[in-house]
């Protein structure tokens, strides 16, 4: 399910499926996308930041057109203890690999991978990024 911002409308709460993973998409060419995410983060329960949130930065192949400060993106990942993934949506191979990675993260967050929790997976992601 997709949403352009948070909070989600409450009138359909009883119909909404369980939320296992939140992927915040940041378009590197749009300051608005970063501002929208920063505003939306206040509406996410703190427990979700234990391995169930990630930031997906799109448009990384066009750094010349960058409107978003990369340090601000890295800071989001650090402050919210959430992985930052980069993707160029126009390149099919990268788009497919990113989709597969997100699907695997979702499977872990939803509890479909025995022995791996969202929290332990989040720790592994942060540990590998620090090396």
UniProtKB/TrEMBL annotation:
Of the GO CC terms on this record, one is: chromosome, centromeric region
Recite the UniProt keywords alphabetically: Centromere, Chromosome, Nucleus
Record-linked Gene3D superfamilies: P-loop containing nucleotide triphosphate hydrolases
Q: Where in the cell is it found?
A: Chromosome, Centromere; Nucleus
Pfam families this protein is in?
CENP-M
Q: Which domain of life is it from?
A: Eukaryota
Task: Respond yes or no to whether keyword Nucleus is given for this record.
Answer: yes
- Coiled coil located at which positions? none
Q: Is Lyase a UniProt keyword of this protein?
A: no
> InterPro entries from the xrefs?
Centromere_Cenp-M, P-loop_NTPase
PANTHER family referenced in this protein's UniProt entry, alphabetically = CENTROMERE PROTEIN M
| Name used for this protein in its record | Centromere protein M
Q: Which organism is it from?
A: Pelecanoides urinatrix (Common diving petrel)
Protein encoded by which gene: Cenpm
